[in-house]
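[stage:ingest] chain + small molecule (beta-D-fucopyranose)
[stage:ingest] validated
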Amino acid sequence: MTFLWGAATAAYQIEGAANVDGRTPSIWDTFSHTPGKVVRGETGDVACDHYHRSADDVRLMSKLGLGAYRFSVSWPRVQPGGSGPANQRGLDFYSRLVDDLLAQNITPFVTLYHWDLPQELEDAGGWPARDTAFRFAEYASIVHDALGDRVQNWITLNEPWCSAFLGYGSGQHAPGRSNGADALAAAHHLNLAHGLAVPRLSGSVGISLNLHEFLPESPSDADAVRRLDAVGNRIFLDPLLRGNYPADLLDDTSGVTDWSFVQDGDLALIKQPMSFLGMNYYTRALVKLGDKPQDGEGLHHLPTSWPGSEHVTVVERDLPRTDMGWEIDPEGLLVQLRWVNEKYGPLPLYITENGAAYPEAVDDQERIAYLDSHLKVCDQARAEGVPLKGYFLWSLMDNFEWAWGYSKRFGIVHVDYDSQARTLKASAHWYAERIRSA
Ligand code: FCB
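[stage:predict] done
[stage:export] tokens:
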């Protein structure tokens, strides 16, 4: 199989058309409309207006020579309210998008859940409530019934760590709740949601995880890495691929929850055959053990995102950073690819997100350097025999960067949010050339 070159987006970040054709609010509509939650009070109401411009955007992808496109389906667009019948107008949009992609020989990778839970399901308890997992499986069937004749590649969830620990732990993401026990219950129900959905899908099915890559500040900080690895990585990898929760995770979090939300039979349901693992990689962090909870800044390192390990802190390194403040460390990606392959393989892998935010500019040489260094690492991993099957750049175009609103730009295509004009950045030309010469 040839290596797949792609780009990725997510529904709430690009579609806009928030109140169109029967779509109802998701937790991100509610959150972004709540004062103080998103920088400058921005929302995804209009975003890149991709809902009305998808045909043009697909032409742009074709111009870049993309072999694959990863997008997500908005749950409240295709099943308003999160239960009950499908909304045909919402499904029609994705059906047209899939047809347009296939007409250009671009393989669709469909993410079913990229964080936009229907608000009604949050009102009924959200991800800390078990029923949400069953609702998700039903929704997965709706999408599969509509697109499964043409879509061969499915990603159940995007970054369940963020859904659970930023959504219900630190509250930096929708729905903005802050309770460690709820965050851990949410993580389990996201795992369960995946497990319940997989048997309802056909073709190639995987999940996208934002695995965290940590280094200890000194050898005596090894336990800091072990702890964050447990609640950041193995909390998903182990049940999904091995059918259990790690004993050290249960231990570390015993002061937070008794895990009674895990019912008999859940682990067997969660461990489903997986066709591939999607990995989203942006940065790496140096960590150390502190003696008390710290108000660390940086990549999601508010202590409340790490229940049971609040005393672990991030140590800043003297490395170049992107506009997100994330340290640039491509070696972390190599280490992570090797680790996943050795510990959980053999399993086909995709980089389902990698990219960088930089201040608004069309001549974005720094982004090219970032992408180039990470792609070199992908080449090296493949040369070593890691079964890496493709790479999806984040992101096709500038978009709504969650709590950062439109202030952070990840696109290789520039978006003028007033006119909605798309302009290829230098990185888009560079990526097109990289694909052509591969
Ligand atoms: C990831 C998200 C994606 C985007 C990038 C920058 O965590 O999956 O939607 O915001 O970060």
